[in-house]
Amino acid sequence: MAAELNLLSYNVCGACGYSKRRLRRIARYLHAAATKYDLDVIVLNEVLWGGEYDVFSLAMGDDWAPVNDPFFQKKIPLLRCGGSGVMVLVNHKKGFQLGEVEHHTFEHAASIDRLATKGFTLIPVIKERVEINLFATHLQAEYTYPNLFGTRFKWPREKWTIQAQLQQMVSRGKQLSNPKSAVYVGDMNTDDRNVFKSVGLHSALRHDNHNTVCGTYYGDGDENKQDLDHVLTHTFQSNRIRILHNSELKRLSDHFPIVMRLHFPQSEGEGVV
Prior knowledge:
The protein is α+β, with helices and mostly antiparallel strands. The protein is 19% helix and 27% strand. It contains five helices and 15 strands. Strands 5, 6, 7, 8, 9, 10 and 13 form a seven-stranded mixed β-sheet that branches. A hairpin with an 8-residue loop joins strand 11 (215-216) and strand 12. Helix 1 (20-36) packs across helix 2 (50-60). The longest helix has 17 residues, at 20-36. The chain is globular, with a radius of gyration of 18 Å.
């Protein structure tokens, strides 16, 4: 027996500013994509303010309820901001079960990411008697912003790297009863597949997809585009990521949504009643 998980990951770019009109346009597009691709799970990055979370919760309707709180831990007291920025919604019409949700935080970066509490959220999804463990994240960048509105200089940190953050997630994944059931989704802030390989993960992004990329540095122009959004697994998947793009989406965010259908066989001895 095997289970399929259809998911979408999208960095909605909090840097574009809070606009109910923009967020509702994104929600309308997500609804259309959910129908077209029969989505089970939607992972959003950079939902930075409580108002954004509320708009998405209402606009997505009763069928798409959030299952985590991006503001479970925050830097700015009394305000609903400075959280992880990761919002996960599941399609309740599908009728699958969810396990206990876990939140983990990374050590805070010496950059603008210090204003957030980035980490990862682990959500066990039990579908067709197979437990799939979804790790939703937005990794911290490895550089600071000497001039936020000017050139973006890269200053690698020695203490905390993207590799170290990935390793923290993978270490939790290896504690699962079936580590092969883990899938790591979100903005990884790198397109270096060697970093993924160093911690035993495979990217499902096509290697020849250079004309359309799923992430870029905000405001830096086309020459600096990078593939930043990924679906990572411990074993190779037969399917590949599909990058969704059109002229409207290019105006809504500096990232494009990605969708993928994953297959997870039931491991020997596994079975959920």
